[in-house]
Each structure stands twice: as C-alpha cells, then as structure tokens.
Design a protein that fits this description.
With about 290 residues, the chain is α/β, with parallel strands linked by helices. The C terminus is likely disordered. Bound molecules: thiamine diphosphate and iron/sulfur cluster. Thiamine diphosphate binds next to helix 3 and strand 5. Iron/sulfur cluster binds next to helix 7.
Length: about 290
C-alpha cells in the first residue's frame, strides 16, 4: 500500500480490527473522521480519552479506536461514563451513541446527564432508524417515514433531540449533518473543550435501511438531501413553523458556562477534608 495515501487519522485506529462492520456509504465513517479532526483541533491528550458506547452500529465506533473504551449495554453509555468520570475526573469521556440508544431505551439517562451538567461529550449519530436490528423506527424518525415497524409510515411525532437536551440543562449543544464535516469538527472541538455536558447531534445516513425503505437511491443522494434540507439556526429564527416543515435546523444551540457536576463532588470532598464535617454524599449513604 502507498503509505503517502493513508488517511492521516489511521494512527488512531486498531488496524487489526479492520475492516469494520459498516455498510458501504454509512455515515459512521464520516463521523469518525470528523471526530479525530475535532480532537486534534481541541488539542486533547489522546492518552486521557476514554470512549464509551451503548449498542448499535454507531456504538461500534469505539471498538475501532486505539484508546481505553467500554462497549456497554443498550442505552446505558451515559450511566457507565458517569461512573468513570466520577472515579477520576481527569479522564476525557467521549460517548458514541445512536438515536435508538440515546433517545429510546437510554432517553432517561440522556436527560439526567444533561441536567447534572457532568463533563461528558456525547456524539449522537442520528440516522432516524434502528440500523443494527433491521430498520425499526426510532424516536427521531420523521412522521410519515417508513421502517420495518412502520410499513404505512410513522404516525409518531419525532423528538428534536438537540432541543430536548438543551432544555434538560446541557451547557453545549450543536447539530450538523454528515454533509457539514468542517462545521461538525469545529463543534466537536468546542464540545471536547467545554467543562460540562456536551451534546453533538449528527444527522447521518443509513443507506441500507432508512435509504432503501424511504426510496433514496444512494448514499450520495442522501447526503445531497441533507445538504439541501439544512438551514442555519440564524436563518431559521425568522421562519414560521410551516416554512420550517421538512427542514433540518443546524448550528450551535447552547454554549454557556455553568457549574459542572464532578467539580461539585470534588469540592464537597475537599470541604470534608478541611472541615472534618461529614459530606452530603456520605450522609446520604448512611441510611442504607
Ligand atoms: C436491552 C436491549 N434491547 C434491545 C436491544 C436490541 N438493539 C440492539 S441495537 C438496537 C438499536 C440501535 O439503534 P441506534 O442506537 O439508532 O443505532 P444504529 O444501529 O442505527 O447506529 C436495538 C434495539 C439490545 N441489544 N438490548
Ligand atoms: S445498517 Fe445502516 S447504520 Fe448500520 S452500518 Fe449499515 S448503513 Fe450504517
């Protein structure tokens, strides 16, 4: 192989685990690339990165990366990552999750992680469907879209995940699509640098299930559609709900400093050492 043509991010991969399981044209590869780019832009110490994921195609990403990682149970990466962060707040926790993993079975953990504003970076690959298990609709499938559990089109209203997480209390929230790799890398950079709960939603393509079931012929067509349907948050602010129908609003939705959860725990422990008073954490457990 011509080494000069090797992707510059190959050094972060466990090459012995390649080829990966992703279908041709899946958005997961683009998100991996943008993540490595954002990580380099943020000048993060790769040695301190711990990747955590749930279950799904998107959740397989950490398995290919040469760092400490934990592939957990469906919907639970935020809970596992919370434990790792509190055990050693120096760790840089990055969670890879899908719309099914984060918003269906893991929805409760997502909103409570955001509410605590614990310093975790969540990268949610939202392909509007359950890819790994055969194309069932998810909480983000657009109304009317087809899936194996919605042969007549989904009747449910989807979640606007970025809005949900912002309302729950996250200190950094942004949404882009796989058609916006530069903007996405920049948001991943900011998310990694933010001392708090950061949520980066990536609207992505699953050509195998979402594409086929919704008559989109190729991954290129899906990427083009995302590009065409996207509208910047600033522009969207001047449009009515009717005008926004079918649009993907992209941009940064939240970026504000607020107290972080593991800092609060550390402060509590320091106070306990200096004053000798039992901490709230200890006394809460005493009643067991
Ligand atoms: C407790 C539990 N329930 C259900 C499943 C089956 N399951 C595995 S992956 C998945 C959906 C994954 O969808 P998503 O998170 O959107 O990821 P994608 O595959 O689309 O990237 C489901 C329902 C499971 N593994 N464990
Ligand atoms: S099933 Fe969909 S999400 Fe899973 S690897 Fe294939 S294209 Fe990607």
């Amino acid at each position: 192989m011509d080494k000069t043509r090797e992707n510059r991010f190959m050094k972060y991969l466990r090459k012995e685990r390649l080829p990966n399981i992703f279908c041709a044209g899946c958005g997961n590869g683009i998100v991996m690339n943008t993540f490595f780019n954002g990580m380099e832009m943020a000048e993060i110490d790769f040695e301190k990165v711990i990747m955590v994921s749930g279950i799904g195609c998107s959740s397989r990403i950490p398995g290919y990366v040469k760092c400490d990682s934990l592939h957990t149970t469906h919907g639970r990466p935020i809970s596992f990552a919370t434990g790792i962060k509190l055990a050693n707040p120096q760790n840089q926790l990055v969670i890879f999750t899908g719309d099914g993993d984060a918003a269906a079975i893991g929805g409760n953990h997502l909103i409570h992680g955001a509410r605590r504003n614990i310093n975790l970076t969540v990268i949610c690959i939202n392909n509007s469907i359950y890819g790994m298990t055969g194309g069932q609709i998810s909480p983000t499938s657009p109304q009317g879209s087809y899936g194996s559990t919605a042969p007549f089109g989904s009747l449910e209203m989807p979640f606007d995940l970025s809005r949900l997480v912002k309302a729950a209390g996250a200190s950094y929230v942004a949404r882009w699509t796989t058609a916006h790799p530069l903007q996405l890398s920049n948001s991943i950079k900011k998310a990694l640098q933010n001392n708090g709960f950061s949520f980066v939603e990536v609207i992505s393509q699953c050509p195998t299930y979402y594409g086929r079931k919704n008559r989109m012929k190729s991954p290129i067509e899906m990427i083009q559609r995302m590009k065409d349907e996207s509208i910047l948050k600033k522009k969207a602010e001047n449009l009515s709900l009717e005008e926004l129908e079918g649009k993907i609003v992209v941009g940064e939705f939240q970026n504000k400093e607020q107290p972080e959860f593991s800092d609060k725990i550390c402060k509590l422990q320091e106070d306990q050492c200096t004053t000798g008073k039992p901490s709230v954490v200890r006394s809460a457990y005493k009643g067991d």
